[in-house]
Amino acid sequence: MGITSAMYSGVSGINTNSLAMTVIGNNLANTNTVGFKGSRTVFSDLMSSTVFGSGGSSQVGRGVGVSKINNIFSQGTFESTSTNTDLAIEGDGFFMLKEVGNNSTYYLRAGAFRFNQEGYLVNPEGFRVQG
After folding, report:
1. Sheet holding 105-108, edge to edge
2. What distance in Å separates the CA atoms of residue 93 and residue 112, rounded to the nearest whole number?
3. Less Cβ around it within 10 Å: N or C end of the chain?
């Protein structure tokens, strides 16, 4: 392995680890956010080469990258609140909401709802709960 490929392996590792730290920082920053689901980083080899020696052949990594960032949708814990309109979903599923004046449907798991002045059940941003 030459010095250039050794430096590339080190630099790609540092850059990839930096992105992984960003994902961890996002998880920590949103720990108390209602309905937040964490993420995890999946790493992969960027390229590899086969090295032949007296003991046979082996593969040596030549750099690392982020394969994907997985969202973790596992069930969280339920908390009791003093607000009757705070809701939670057990298992799979999402709340469906629509923004007033917009036909797009939004999906979320955060169940911090309240009734607005017109009597609609809405989230803190004012999106109406559907269904």
Report:
1. 105-108, 95-98, 128-129, 121-122, 114-115
2. 16
3. C
pLDDT of residue 97: 93
75 sits in the region (left: phi over 0; alpha: psi -120 to 50; else beta) called: beta
List the chain residues with pLDDT less than 70.
Answer: 1-2, 5, 48, 60-61
So what's the pLDDT on residue 2?
A: 66
In the chain, domain spans: 3-71, 76-131
Angstrom CA distances, 41 to 14, 69, 96, 120, stand at 14, 5, 28, 39
